[in-house]
Write a structure and sequence with these properties.
By secondary structure, this protein is of the alpha+beta class. The chain has helices spanning 56-65, 101-108, and strands at 2-10, 18-19, 25-37, 42-54, 67-75, 80-88, 93-100. The strands form two sheets. Strands 2, 3, 4, 6 and 7 form a five-stranded antiparallel beta sheet that branches. The longest helix is centred in the middle third of the chain and has 10 residues, at 56-65. The chain is elongated and about 50 Å long. Residues 112-118 have low confidence and may be disordered.
């Protein structure tokens, strides 16, 4: 198995971050990672709820650079694809992205067993 770290950056204008009475912005997101082989067989997956509480100073930074977070998933060291998805519970909007991990390895020029490992 190889541990892959997936870094997400979500544009702030696409997120529902409701202000609380104390000025803190709140949001809830469901994030999914799925690793599967060429035949579409799931090899590993995870679903995480991300609760966001942003004080005014952090919210200003998120507006400028987006909301960033990372998740780790263990997948077999094989030719497979990784699909990610984010669902914003506040707006009911979702987005997905799929990448072949072999393309990431080739682009990075790193031996396959080292990509995304800790």
């Amino acid at each position: 198995m190889t541990r892959c770290t997936v870094r997400f950056t979500l544009a702030s204008d696409r997120l529902t971050l409701e202000p609380g009475a104390d000025g803190v912005r709140h949001g809830n997101f469901e994030t999914t990672l799925l690793g599967y082989d060429r035949d579409g067989m799931p090899l590993n997956w995870m679903v995480r709820m991300i609760k966001v509480d942003l004080p005014p100073d952090r919210y200003a930074a998120v507006q400028a650079r987006g909301l960033s977070f990372s998740l780790d998933i263990d997948v077999p060291a094989a030719d497979l694809n990784l699909r990610s998805g984010v669902y914003d519970q506040g707006s009911s909007k979702a987005g997905t992205l799929e990448i072949p991990l072999a393309a990431v390895v080739a682009q990075a020029g790193v031996p396959k067993e080292r990509v995304g490992t800790k």
